[in-house]
Hints:
Layout: E1 6-12, E2 18-24, H1 40-43, H2 46-53, H3 61-66, E3 71-73, H4 88-91, E4 99-101, H5 103-106, H6 114-127, H7 130-146, H8 167-171
Amino acid sequence: MGFPILFRQQRPGMHGCPFQLLKFRTMNESRDEAGNLLPDADRLTSLGRFLRATSLDELPQLWNVLRGELSLVGPRPLLMSYLPRYSPWQARRHEVMPGITGWAQVNGRNALSWDEKFDLDVWYVDHWSLALDLRILCLTLLKVLRRDGISRSGHATMPEFQGACHPLSTQKQKPT
């Protein structure tokens, strides 16, 4: 798959502050004639598919947890490039520490639409409790064993988030 074995990518943490997320590399760096990266489906290796299906690619994130950049449970940290695309309501997902697993992960993972994922992330922000985190950790174990929701139908991973378009994304904003 190439070196280094660990994939590092800047992701937004709590309040959108960037940190370096660690994962095991699951894709190669294959590019087209113009030098652009090929789509995820073309770059995902067979070992990478296995690592993602079993969620073993996430293990290096335990280092991020030890460093205080990530929690075991919280909304999954997405890409930095998504930050300006969020509605104020969607951006509420950054009011808590991001996590290795979360409410959206155990309720559909990548099989969810972006709107569903944000609905679940903000619900988690509003309903956080230790009991909920323990429930999510138990449900995560079941999801990993069953290999549920690994990818979006018709995609190797998750399609790119294009921005807030769901009517609820603006209706659910808290009054200022």
